[in-house]
Amino acid sequence: MEPILKIENLDKVYPDGTVALSNINFNVYPGEFVVVIGPSGAGKSTLLRCMNRLVEPTNGNVIFKDKKINKANSKQVKQIRREIGMVFQNFNLIDRLTVLNNVLHGRLGYTNTIKGSLGIFSKKDITEAEEILARVGLSKQKYKRADELSGGQMQRVGISRALSQRPRLILADEPIASLDPASSKNIMDHIYNICTEDKITAIVNLHQVEVAIKYATRIIGIQNGEVIFDGQPSQLTDKVIDEIYHDRRPPLVHAQ
Amino acid sequence: MSELEKSSDNIYSLNRNEDNNEMIVKPKKDFFIKGVLIFGCLFFLFSLYELNIDYSNLLEGTVAFFIMLGDMFPPNISEWAYVLPAAIESLQVAILGTVIAVVISLVLAFLAAENLAPNKWVARIVKSFATLMRVIPTIIWALIFIVAVGLGPLPGVLAIAVHSLGMLIKVFAQSVEEMDGGKIEALKASGAGSVQIIAQGVIPTVLTALMAWTILRLEIDIGESTILGLVGAGGIGWELMRAMRSYDFNTALFITMVIFVMIFSVEMLSNRLKLKV
Amino acid sequence: MHNKGKRVMELEEIRDIRQRKRVQTILITLLVVGLTIWSALGTDFSVYEVFSGLGLISNFVFIDLLPPDVSTSGSLLGAILETLYMGFVGMVVGAMIALVLSFLAAGTTTPHPIIQVVVRAFTSIIRNIPGLIWALILVASYGIGVTVGTLSLILGSVGFLTRVFADTLEEIDTGKIEALNATGSSYLQVLAQGVFPQFIPGFVAWSLYNLELNIRASTIIGMVGGGGIGFAIQKGIKLFQYKEVSMAIILVLVLILSTEFLTSKIRERII
């Protein structure tokens, strides 16, 4: 099977000299549910953001469906980004807009600039956004303002926004780090079930090793910007975990 | 892990129940904002119509303005011996006016603050006087004082002092009123008199706010003092008026540049101070 | 032993800081007092003159100014409305121009850093020259009238609003902008759908505040030939018609207070 995403010799050095990533290599195949684990500051976020070029890689290639993202011009980058959905730790919804409008933001890349700017979307897009909201159980909230929702609900809107892009790949950056345990499970279930049902490939950054083992089909452990583990969850021994976290096992769920 | 397991297992069945409920109605948009916007647009058009601006004059004037801008260069700095002392006088008028206003307002603000005033009526009377002083622009105060005490920097100082006093009483009193009531109560409970309460409880608490307002007011007053000369209350504004009246645009540009430097450096300085406070 | 030594050190440090603070306070006080005395000398300020002037001032206020001549209110009404129109038009046009400029001047939204510096410098020049002085300069090109008043109010609004709008834009949550970028939205779409909704409360609040500033400024802009009530006040004083002047001042009072009242009500409702 052809990989959907290829990472080749990826380096990232920030202008202040911090080496965030060095020589990362791996392929992701369609249908995989990859979880990236590692301590804070290991470079997980940077790695994810290099994949859709929210962060500019210093060296190496990121190839999505045979297209080199790092070589694409700004128009091509936008076209590639449309096919990659992203879910954020802080949800990053636009507070003053309605839930539905936030979901429709996933269609902006497919909408003409002026219409999109004015918030005019096609009937089809709206129906589809409503269907997605029904799927994550937020039909009743669709006309509410985004800032009226609870954290778990906000993240479901964040997922819906990514889904409305009809993505081939979903990147989730610490999607449950700002949530309570019950919402965390709910959100992880949603991401996992939707990706499996819709055959969407997923790359998820997580802090919690236990959660990673529960959902992942493959785990990548990174530390100090380098991949030090890449394999099945069953291969992730305590020794490896200790190595990844330097004996600093993170708590199951971060206290808020 | 166990914590995660506890919550409901099948989220999808739960959601279906949610969806079975009554139809969701699209909430009505808030008509207030739309109303204000529509009224604003209409009032804007009406204002434009009523102002009856002569658009051909606007065009000619703009051309004339740019020609004048060209004429202004290079600035004529030969008059510096008159201009710089006038600039310093403006600065002095602003400083003195602000200091007088701060000193007096420190006393009156406590009478105007409802949580400290001897009674409500005192607070109200002081506040309405403050409003009167604040609402009448500095330059109108200057005109009034010029009629009373003659031309020169004195009416300028008084005008700035009176207008600033109005604003400072208002904001100082607000700072005092926002103070945590418990602190005053604690001092009262210890048997402190009202002057002691102010000196030991109120002033230390609101000091930072008072300093910030004072700096802001000085910044505004330096701007105001540069224009007071336009009506004859001393300072650099008078020099600019004279230069413009005699069509000496090169000198006018120099004076404008001096005014810009004055206000700009005060803005920079107060930004610095604000960071420190 | 070791601990004790450390504690003594700490105590000494605290004493040191206290002393430095006290010295600082004394220096600042001396500086303020010195500046005040310097200013008083420079402006020939004498308390004696103020108190002897007090009689003159009260005479002037109670005999010449008061009571206001209500019969002139009809003719002054036109002037005060003109003041209101100038202030409002100045705010609307100024806010529109500032809206565009602020997107260029804010670090988060500017298309290019050089554009940012140029726009910031340009608006800083406009802002740091008082409106009345703009009016005085503009009168030479446009002649006496409301055009000058309106234009200088527009300039003042652009200078002020561009700065505060740009500051508001720079405080916007960049994560949300990132989220929209990640969906493949274009620059304009990100501005309209991501930045603008976050910007609206600040936009409304600052524009309303600017309206208050404009109304204040437009009451005096007439003194140098910008039309409105300021012209009437200036004229009244030159012709010694003080009772008309006091009527005009009362109208100014009413206009400013009602603007403040209205804007605060609108602000409460919208934000």
UniProtKB/TrEMBL annotation, chain A:
Positions of the ABC transporter domain: 5-249
SMART domains (UniProt xref): AAA (SM00382)
A single GO cellular-component term on record: membrane
Pfam family for this entry, one: ABC_tran
InterPro entries recorded: AAA+_ATPase, ABC_transporter-like_ATP-bd, ABC_transporter-like_CS, ABC_transpr_PhnC, MetN_ABC_transporter-like, P-loop_NTPase
Signal peptide positions on this chain: none
GO molecular function: ABC-type phosphonate transporter activity; ATP binding; ATP hydrolysis activity
Swiss-Prot/TrEMBL keywords: ATP-binding, Cell membrane, Membrane, Nucleotide-binding, Phosphonate transport, Translocase, Transport
CDD domains for the chain: ABC_PhnC_transporter
Domain of life from the UniProt record: Bacteria
Protein name: Phosphonate transport system ATP-binding protein
PROSITE patterns: ABC_TRANSPORTER_1, ABC_TRANSPORTER_2
From TrEMBL, chain B:
Subcellular location: Cell membrane
Positions of transmembrane segments: 31-49, 91-111, 132-151, 197-216, 252-270
Residues covered by the ABC transmembrane type-1 domain: 87-270
Tree of life domain: Bacteria
GO annotation, cellular component aspect: plasma membrane
GO molecular function, one term: ABC-type phosphonate transporter activity
Keywords, in A-Z order: Cell membrane, Membrane, Transmembrane, Transmembrane helix, Transport
A Pfam family this chain is assigned to: BPD_transp_1
Keyword Transcription: no
InterPro entries documented for this protein: MetI-like, MetI-like_sf, PhnE/PtxC
Membrane topology: Multi-pass membrane protein
Family statement: Belongs to the binding-protein-dependent transport system permease family.
The protein, known as: Phosphonate transport system permease protein
Source species of the chain: Saliterribacillus persicus
TrEMBL record, chain C:
GO molecular function, one term: ABC-type phosphonate transporter activity
GO terms for cellular component: plasma membrane
Family: Belongs to the binding-protein-dependent transport system permease family.
Name of the protein in question: Phosphonate transport system permease protein
Subcellular location: Cell membrane
Pfam family, one: BPD_transp_1
Ranges for domain ABC transmembrane type-1: 80-263
Topology versus the membrane: Multi-pass membrane protein
